[in-house]
Specification:
Helices cover about 65% and strands about 15% of the residues. It has about 675 residues and is of the alpha/beta class. The strands form three sheets. The chain has an eight-stranded mixed barrel, surrounded by four helices. Strands 2-3-1-6-7 form a five-stranded mixed beta sheet, with helices on both faces. It has a two-stranded antiparallel ribbon with strand order 4-5. Strand 6, helix 12 and strand 7 form a beta-alpha-beta unit. The protein starts with a helix and ends with a helix. The relative contact order is 0.05.
Length: about 675
């Protein structure tokens, strides 16, 4: 029976041998590759069989029966030819791995009967003919098996079946012939075919490894392609996100300027028009202050939705940042079209907005610039539109301004002022004048407001309305504030203790603790009583950064100085600021005083503000009083302090001393 291990090894060898004679089904891709290579060689296999059979039949004509050398070869060669044609016709047709496997398996099964028939036929011819004809039979069998091995190298199992089916009978027949030459031939063929089989097995192994390596490479390439696709998708998403505002889902500032250059180039080449618009919301900051940033976000989202809903295929909308939006309008965009668009934008923005906890309302100011009327580059057109917006904010709030010759002149003047200011010797060119603040009851001066003046040797006298915004823009305003405050304190030190100094601060003076501390330091070094100083701030200063401005104002209050909210009533949500800030005074803007005796609305506004001041125990100062009629009405309303040309125009430091000296003399005389 043998040892169990030996039996196990024997059965293992038998299973391996049987496996060699089967078409492998474990790798469909390999099967498909085998079929693709094998299908090219099968017609050659049938060609070898047919030509060898015909050759052997011809040499045995007359020596062997017709059945063996005529009829049977005709049938077999016809069959080989038909099979060859079938393979040639089907070679170009794509087959699935399953179809390829079935075809290879059928060929594998068919290889045995074909080998047996061909071997039996050739052996049956061996007794006939002379020694040369018999040698031809041996040659036929040898060359045929070698040719078959070559042609079947991609179907290992079939090659092994054919080799075994031919070589074993061939060796037996050669040996039984007793002829030494035939015996040697049989042994030679066996040895050669064994070497051929070794080559075949090695080739098959290399073919399998090459295929698997190619598959791995293809998988790697597929993975790399998928990775590249994923990276491209990610890159596209990043690019989209980089050009998209995450809150409103509108294209962002970066996208705006990219598209601006594109549309400008298109308009310049085609000779068409392009309108660039800039929108800024009025009253948005108070929404954030009163209701929180989430409410502000809802407002921005709603505004973005409304602007996007404007049905104009030539219009694109962008969020430039904060509460600022951009517009690009291509094609037909004359002034009338642009003004109509601007009005539509303003109307849409002005509609009330539901923020969940209530309804709010903001407005929008719009500035436009139209190419080719103005601008040499896309950036320049945008800057001109931005200046038109600046003009709208100053003069046409909640309205539209198109950049025109008036703004061009203003902008040119602004550039001239800026160039002169940059080159200015501020210590020599800046000066101060002082406008009296008068007590209505006693008709005496109780303080002076310090007002900056600039006379440039290059462009002459420049209005504060011109040079202050420029100084704020180029960053020189804080230097000017400190320089003028030192001068104002030196002048005020010469006044009686009952007279105070009112001094204006820029928004930039309140934007950081460092700037405010420098102002505090100047006051302390002057030895001037801080309680005699009244710092004036505007709503712009507060709205820029409410938290920091509030902290800076508190620092000045702790110093002992008073704080006035200047130009009250001209901004937005002033009441909110009044409630939150440590103010001591409110200055009512002169625009409400002008013609107060004929304008009922102005009268009611001033009356309401005075009532508010009384309720909050704040002193009220009314600016812009120029006539007796205005003064009389204000006095009847209970105003106690006024400022304006009626009581005195701005005067020099020396003139303030004369004014106060005369006031003292009149007091003594009475």
């Amino acid at each position: 029976m043998g040892h169990p291990a030996e039996r196990h090894n024997l059965s293992t060898w038998i299973r391996k041998a049987i496996a060699l004679l089967k078409v492998p089904a474990d790798n469909p891709a390999l099967t498909a590759a085998q079929f693709a290579a094998f299908s090219k060689q099968i017609p050659l296999l049938y060609f070898i069989l047919a030509t060898n059979m015909i050759s052997l039949s011809l040499t045995h004509q007359g020596a062997a029966p017709d059945f063996l050398v005529v009829y049977l070869p005709v049938v077999l060669t016809s069959l080989f030819t038909l099979r060859s044609l079938i393979w040639l016709r089907g070679r170009k047709r794509e087959r699935t791995p399953a179809e390829a496997y079935r075809q290879l398996r059928a060929t594998n099964i068919l290889s045995f009967p074909i080998a047996v028939v061909c071997t039996a036929w050739s052996v049956s011819l061996l007794p006939y003919g002379n020694p040369y004809q018999q040698a031809h039979v041996a040659f036929f069998m040898a060359i045929t098996v070698i040719g078959c091995i070559f042609c079947l190298m991609h179907l290992r199992s079939a090659a092994l079946i054919v080799t075994a089916s031919v070589n074993v009978p061939f060796l037996v027949v050669m040996y039984l012939s007793g002829e030494p030459t035939f015996i040697a031939t049989g042994i030679n063929v066996i040895l050669v075919t064994m070497a051929m089989i070794m080559i075949l097995l090695s080739h098959y192994r290399d073919f399998r490894q090459l295929h698997e390596s190619r598959n791995v490479l293809m998988l790697q390439q597929d993975a790399l392609q998928e990775q590249n696709k994923a990276m491209q998708i990610l890159s596209d998403q990043n690019l989209r996100l980089a050009n998209l505002d995450s809150l409103t889902l509108l294209p962002n500032r970066r996208s705006f300027f990219q598209m601006l250059e594109t549309t400008y180039g298109r308009a310049r080449e085609a000779g068409t028009m392009l309108a660039v618009g800039v929108i800024d919301l009025d009253g948005f900051k108070p929404v954030n202050d009163l209701y929180g940033h989430s409410a502000g976000d809802k407002v921005l989202i709603e505004i973005g939705t409304r602007l996007s809903a404007i049905s104009n295929p030539s219009l694109s909308v962008y969020r430039l940042g904060g509460d600022e939006f951009g517009l690009l309008l291509e094609g037909k965009c004359g002034e009338a079209d642009v003004m109509a668009l601007g009005q539509k934008v303003c109307d849409l923005i002005a509609e009330r907005i539901n923020i969940g906890s209530g309804m709010v309302q903001v407005t929008g100011s719009v500035g436009f610039a139209i190419y080719p009327d103005v601008g040499e580059t896309g950036q320049e057109i945008y800057e001109l539109a931005d200046y038109a917006l600046y003009t709208a904010k100053r003069r046409h709030r909640a309205g539209t301004v198109i950049f025109n010759a008036v703004q061009a002149n203003e902008l040119n003047r602004q550039k001239i002022v800026e160039e002169a200011l940059v080159a200015a010797d501020l210590d020599k060119e800046l000066s101060l004048v002082f406008q009296p603040i008068t007590c209505v009851d006693r008709r005496i001066c109780i303080g002076f407001e310090a007002l900056a003046r600039w006379e440039s040797p290059r462009i002459g006298q420049v209005s504060p309305a011109e040079f202050i915004p420029v100084a704020e823009h180029n960053g020189r305003i804080t230097l000017m504030t400190r320089m003028l405050l030192e001068r104002a304190l030196k002048t005020a030190a010469l006044w009686p203790e009952s007279v105070y100094l009112s001094f204006n601060l820029s928004p930039h003076d309140l934007t950081s603790p460092e700037n405010t501390l420098k102002i505090v330091s100047i006051v302390l070094k002057s030895n001037f009583d801080p309680r005699r100083i009244n710092f004036e701030i505007t709503e712009t200063a507060v709205m820029h950064d409410f938290e920091q401005a509030s902290a800076s104002i508190q620092m000045l209050r702790e110093l002992g100085a008073g704080i006035s909210l200047d130009d009250f009533g001209t901004g937005y949500s002033s009441l909110n600021h009044v409630h939150k800030l440590p103010l001591t005074k409110i200055k009512i803007d002169g625009s409400f005083v002008r013609n107060i005796h004929t304008r009922r609305t102005s009268f009611n506004i001033v009356k309401s503000v005075l009532a508010l001041c009384a309720e909050m125990e704040l002193e009220a100062i009314v600016e812009g009083v120029e006539t007796e009629e205005e003064l009389r009405i204000l006095e009847n309303l209970g105003v106690r302090a006024v400022q304006g040309y009626y009581f005195g125009k701005p005067m020099t430091a020396e003139e303030t001393l004369k004014r106060l000296a005369l006031q003292d003399a009149q007091a003594l005389a009475s």
